[in-house]
Amino acid sequence: MRLKLVPAKTDWDFFSIARLTFGLSAAAMVASAILFLTVGLNYGIDFRGGTTFRTTAEREVVIADYRAAILPLGLGDISITEVFDPTKPDQNVTQIRVEAQEGDEAVTTETSAAVLAALQQVDPGLSFLSVESVGPKVSGELIRAAVVAVMLAIGAVLFYIWLRFEWQFSLGAVAALIHDVAITIGVFSLLGIKFDLAIIAALLTIVGYSLNDTVVVFDRVRENLRKYKKKDLKGVLNLSINETLSRTVMTSVTTLLALISLFILGGDVIRGFVFAMILGVVIGTYSSVFVASAILLRLGVKRDWSKPDANTGNRFAGTDA
Amino acid sequence: MLKIALWKRVTIWALVLTGLLMALPNAFYARVEQHNDAISGIGAAGDGPDRQAALAAWPGWLPSSLVNLGLDLRGGAHLLTEVRVEEVYETRVQAMWPEIRNLLRAERTTIGAIRRQDGPPDELRIRISDPTGMARAVELVRGLAQPVVTLTDVGGSDIVVSGTGDILTVTLSEAERAATDERTVRQSLEIIRRRVDEVGTREPTIQRQGRQRIIVQVPGLGSAAELKALLGTPAKLEFKPVVRRTSDAGAIPGVGNQVLPSVDPREDGTFYIVERAAVVTGEELVDAQPSFDQNGLPAVSFRFNPSGARKFGDYTAENVGSPFAIILDGEVISAPVIQSHIPGGSGIITGSFTVEASTDLAVLLRAGALPAGLDILEERTIGPELGQDSIEAGRIACIIAFAAVLVFMAASYGLFGLFANIALVLNVGLIFGLLSMIGATLTLPGIAGIVLTIGMAVDANVLIFERIREELKTARGPARAIELGYEKALSAILDANITTFITAVILFVMGSGPVRGFSVTLGLGIITSVFTAIYVTRLMIVMWFERKRPRTIEV
């Protein structure tokens, strides 16, 4: 007996709840924008400069003691968080972030030695697992590069889909992308998860994954538009989504299986990164149906694709594999 | 129907086998690493029984390139530094003074007396007492200009000379500045490489980034502090004649001289007025070793090359009884009085050193001086324990992810799921094969990329299998359904993977560090997963079909 997550044949009307899903998506995006503007992202040192020390100690961590030890050094704003890793309960790991010091680019040897000495007053067995420091000069450049990378990715994809499909598909896909990225950023603002370079990589993967999903649905829409010339667009869209539903769910589940194991077992260094991807996969799957296709339905598509000269859209299908 | 030409089958299997063979060394990481170390060790330091044993641990005819482990996995230090290229302009411009002085003095009749003026350090200002001769003076100094030579073109003058009123100004031209920057950065790169090699760490990465930045990555070094100490000082050694001693930092040194502080704690608050032009510099050193002076205090002994030895010898012969300053990076280490002529070209630097400091200084002097100072813009030090933890965590996560996906696929698609699973195992093998082949570096985000690929690699197969299921409902016979399934799923597979590949490429081009590591495995993963899905699983299914010839199939 085969495992089936989705019945062999489904005939669900995905657009009957379009008003609800549109409202939900719009509300989520507005909420994300507000969160981003009010709460803001918890930028890591990659984007605002500064230094993080990752420490391991013998005794249990008392954050107040750590803070009291470092404060007299006059390093400005510091934040100390205990890192809880279920697989390594006895390491007593903390992450200490110190802002960029006036006049210095990266952390000086003296500063890090001073921090270590101060903390060893609290716990003599304490040592640094890692020290990462980014100067304000570099962090500014990193922000710019990251923003450009996300923009470029969205632009390139917009262009590719426009090339392979029609401009309406392209708009639908990009709307879904922006939706996914915006909500991910909103969730990051809400939960205050550290936002660093790796998260940018995760965002771009979400862009890729969300597209992957959208493109598969669109590919079927294109095929069905040719096949069922009499069917209205809504019917074609519903049919296409139903036909690809089994695949959509299968792929999302396998990807999530992989990501969840990484989230639980992969250690906390990449946990934020993996979290962003899990979020992206869930939102991306939702958006390819409820955002991309719904927008396609609103925009409408031209239907006279079946002309013999109009096979530009299916260039690869005839290739011998 | 369902025919695949023999040459295609052979090619497909050959590609898979090559990939797996390339990936094989990674399964025996420690052993192959020792083998590779032994090869380079025998080349560099001679043979030995240990090395022979390590060499024999891995057969020589097998591929032996490994996936490099990134700093976040193996621990180590990463520094991004910027070369202060402007410092060199100053040296260049200042060095022109004697020549210009001599040239203009010879023309005293037309331009009158000349006098150096204070100005920005990268500019030479000269006042001439007869402004009417300015045109002539400018012409003369311009005659000193050399054409700028760069890799791309020859032409343009290296200096810009202008005269306003009675002031003649000489600066470096834009073209010369660019050429100087280029030279300075290359030279710095070379010196950094020598210094890092001197301390003997394995596989350091020293790369230029952009116009004036250098990335230094040293795996396994305990802390970046050590690395920073190595790069932090230019280690510019100069021997200059002492004009006089003073305790006033603001003393007026006089033209052609400078005031430098003493670093000797026994002479706290002492300053030396020395001549700007050095008699000999560290560039002419051939060796430097830590040693002890006659009082048993740590010191550094050195030896000059023949031309340095001659200059040193001549100067000491002519100046017996006068003090001679030994200057490191603009600070006087000591200023001993020349006791006698020193002909051999070797000597000893004494000062208030610790044993450690004298050892470090010797290393720096041997490697040579950096042409300019370095600013450290970014530093990342990962302790080896954290790296080990990350590898361990990544490995477990990979195995669990793998197992979960395998079980899930088999449960969903039965036999076809098994084919997809074999393809998935091959796929991960191929990713490692490709990574080893191109000498890529595996980082923690890179592992995440592989795990994501595991999840997504099945997508192509899922697309095909779902399509075959659909076709089974309408098509005549299983063979036709399989063929149609592959044919019709292809455009979706390609479109979906090309879009993801586009983002991987953008990540690679725009990203740095962690982002890049992720994009490499993601991009390679897309290539191998498309390959395994549309060629390898297809071939497996066709081979199975040919053997069994089933009347009906269940996907």
How is this structure best described in words?
The complex is a heterodimer of chains A (321) and B (555). By secondary structure, chain A is of the alpha+beta class. Chain A folds into 2 domains: 18-43 and 139-303, Multidrug efflux transporter AcrB transmembrane domain (Multidrug efflux transporter AcrB transmembrane fold), CATH 1.20.1640; 50-134, Alpha-Beta Plaits (2-Layer Sandwich), CATH 3.30.70. Chain A has 9 helices and 6 strands. Chain A has helices spanning 18-38, 45-48, 63-70, 109-122, 136-164, 167-191, 197-227, 233-265, 271-299; strands at 42-43, 50-56, 78-83, 93-98, 127-134, 194-195. In chain A, the strands form 2 sheets. Chain A has a 4-stranded antiparallel beta sheet with strand order 3-4-2-5. Chain A has a two-stranded parallel sheet with strand order 1-6. The longest helix of chain A is centred in the last third of the chain and has 33 residues, at 233-265. Mean pLDDT of chain A is 83; it is low at 306-321. The radius of gyration of chain B is 34 Å and the shape is elongated. Helices cover 54% and strands 20% of the residues of chain B. Chain B has 555 residues and is of the alpha+beta class. In chain B, the strands form 6 sheets. In chain B, strands 11, 12, 13, 14, 17 and 18 form a 6-stranded antiparallel beta sheet that branches. In chain B, strands 9-10-2-20 form a 4-stranded antiparallel beta sheet. Chain B has 3 domains: 6-27 and 385-548, Multidrug efflux transporter AcrB transmembrane domain (Multidrug efflux transporter AcrB transmembrane fold, Up-down Bundle), CATH 1.20.1640.10; 86-180; 235-348, Gyrase A, domain 2, CATH 3.30.1360.200. In chain B, helix 12 crosses helix 15, helix 13 (444-474) runs parallel beside helix 15 (513-548) and helix 14 runs antiparallel to helix 15. The chains are: A alpha+beta (321), B alpha+beta (555). At the A-B interface, helix 4, strand 5, helix 5, helix 7 and helix 8 of A face strand 2, helix 9, strand 20, helix 12 and helix 13 of B.
